[in-house]
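Question: Now follow the chain.
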Amino acid sequence: MSFDPKNFKKPSPNELQKKLSPLQYSVTQLEDTEAPFENEFHESKSPGLYVDIVSGEPLFSSLDKFDSGCGWPSFTRPLPEVKIVEKEDHKMSRKRVEVRSPYADSHLGHVFEDGPEPTGLRYCINSASLRFIPFEKLEEQGYAEFKKLFEK
């Protein structure tokens, strides 16, 4: 179930509603936000890869995940080869930067400039927009090239 950018075609809204849970659909397609502290990956510390729930495109590594205290999974950066899409978001009372996946155009969350080094950024991401692939299943699920990230 790996990601092939050359052959990826985003499913229709109807297909996505069948494939995703109501929460996953509302977060990724309608730009909703899941509840803080009550989401699947908030406290996860397992080594592995986080991919887009819609497409399977690799987005974040557990190596860049940190506990920001905000209630959602937070990362200092996306994977080096990923070009996360950033858009200005004025839906709240202040300007924010929304982040979206490059191929599926899924709403992931927001990026803030209050994160730790080495980037100073905090990618605050909805668990509902992600699927986690544990390190030991990377090869089995078609993401073997990412195993090198975890080798010291």
